[in-house]
Amino acid sequence: MSTRFDPLAILRTPYLFFTGKGGVGKTSTACAAAVALADSGKRVLLVSTDPASNLQDVFGMELSNHPAAIESVPNLFAANLDPEMAVEEYKAKVVAPYRGILPDSVISTMEEQLSGACTVEIAAFDEFTTLLTGEQLRSQFDHILFDTAPTGHTLRLLQLPAAWNGFLEESTHGASCLGPLAGLERKKDVYEQAVRTLSDHLETTLVLVTRPDRTPLLEAARAAQELREIGVTHQIMIVNGLLQKPESEDPISSGLYERQQTALREMPEALTNLSVFHIPLVAFNILGVASMRQLFKPTEPVSLEAALKEAPPRLPSLSALIDDVEQAGIRILFTMGKGGVGKTTVASALAVGLAERGHNVHLSTTDPAAHIETLFGTDAGLISLSRIDPKAEVDQYRQEVINQNAELLDEEGLAVLEEDLRSPCTEEIAVFRAFAELVERSQDQIVVIDTAPTGHTLLLLDASEEYHKEVARSTGLVPDSVRKLLPRLRNAKETAVVIVTLAEATPFYEASRLEEDLKRAEISVRWWTINQSLAASGTEEPVLKGRAVAEVPWIREINKRAGGQTVIIPWRPKEIRGVEQLTELAHLH
Amino acid sequence: MKSIEIYDPAMCCSTGVCGPVVDPELIRISAVVHHLKKKEFNVSRYNLTSEPDAFVVNHVIKQLLTDEGPDVLPVILLDGQLVKKQSYPSNEELEEWTGIPASELTQKPKVRIELKLKSK
């Protein structure tokens, strides 16, 4: 059995990276650890690098990319590396010296180019390495904690210093696609130092946060392995939300207990040699400083008086949503929401439900941490499956461009081209093209798309707008699928968005922000889905019941926001796997 | 020794592969510039996004931008004199300016090697 997580005893290095699949409680753990360290007298900086950060919700204050003091916790500072904000600052810095010297029209063409995916990546990266190598910050703080983005993004961010260093060394023709950072070579030392810091045992600890559940553990194993390969070898693991052996006969809690224990027993090999710590499942939500301070203390026994005073509102189940989608003749169906809320499961159940009613359905995921295949097993029935894998898409796009130009260029020219094709913005373009092609399929099939975690989705949608501007300007051959994409997504008769959330503060706030952003892109949300609801499960076990009670106000809030267009899925002790269980989910009443 | 300066519009990268469609014209120019450099011809290329200083320091370019706006780009200077604007030079024009036969500027390799893309 693992020991209970105690931040003061375990977190020793100045740099602490928290990583894990969305929804495992990474932010809560990082925040609570930061508060505990600060309370012990250490000076602590907490940084979020997640494009869809929720540090602001947790502390209940606005944050920027400059460290700000958290009032209620002396010694604690927090910053939020919002890539969009970083881009604005970067853009302003680049363009400012030329205002009034070059005409405004010229300035605006510069600004437009500085809005692309490349700049977003570079600006975020630049800030990240600055934090990681800043002597001043290092002397100002005892610990700098990074509440990093969900796994895929974290890896990309962490791999960047290594990858870009290689890029710089190999770069032969100078003016490459890293144009926006023309002075990159000058910063080479900074990147090298960042890489050194990441792989130094005395400087950096990687904290893998996971839940005692199969998928998050698989995810943690993958992250552990990949980070080990790039030299980040000092790793520990925290298992969050471990249920103590229940005393009651409540089937929900004994089901959960069994499921957790099995998952831990069958933990992937890549994790078995790590130091493992756990945080017990608590009966309250982590929101605000008081609850964070409670997290590492022995849990107060929950009195059953906290039982449901009011029953949660009666909400329809998934089958109502499927009825509606069918009757409305929707062709493109998206499930969106914070990572870890069960978008893939909901998307799969919707696909199964529609297929069962005789529709030709295609199910696809853009989630880098896709587990559609494990969800379905080998038999997807009438549904065709696909996955947008950024790496594969980029490879394909590169090959396509190279082939198109092979006749035009000699091998050195091709090498130059290949070099540009290795830049970060190529990935956005390649993924976007794949996305457009997928939506194109809706002419023959109902396309269900399980999108990437919130932040990534937003960047993707944002990129699509940029892309459209360029498409309008370009005289080249633009695929029809690309031209038609945005109008199609905006057409509520053709496209429906289903927001998936949990009845908890953070997923709800994030989902609300997502809805705002979609509105701005003129895309409307048709349904909200509350997934994995303990309140709807009927559990009587004290800790779980505590959480169920905490859900009720959020269920009301969500339903209000959705204007009554809400369905609810009860928490189920068994992990959902295989078509049969997905069908069951689609049939729930 | 003659010199050619190419002032590009605001671009993300010199080959344009970051755009939604690959512009063959940009790829041709990248290749030609590459060949000219190999022949030690004095050729430079500036991107408005990454090297705005070059556009401000050169009076001809700055005046053109002020008078005609960003659409004047690309602009090509031969020995500091304006020779072309709003589009890139043809291979024939380059031959005329440099004295290097167009065939050599777009020269194909004698031995073609297969380019295998590494997927990391």
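qc> The domain at 4-106 of chain B is CATH 3.40.30.10 (Glutaredoxin).
qc> done
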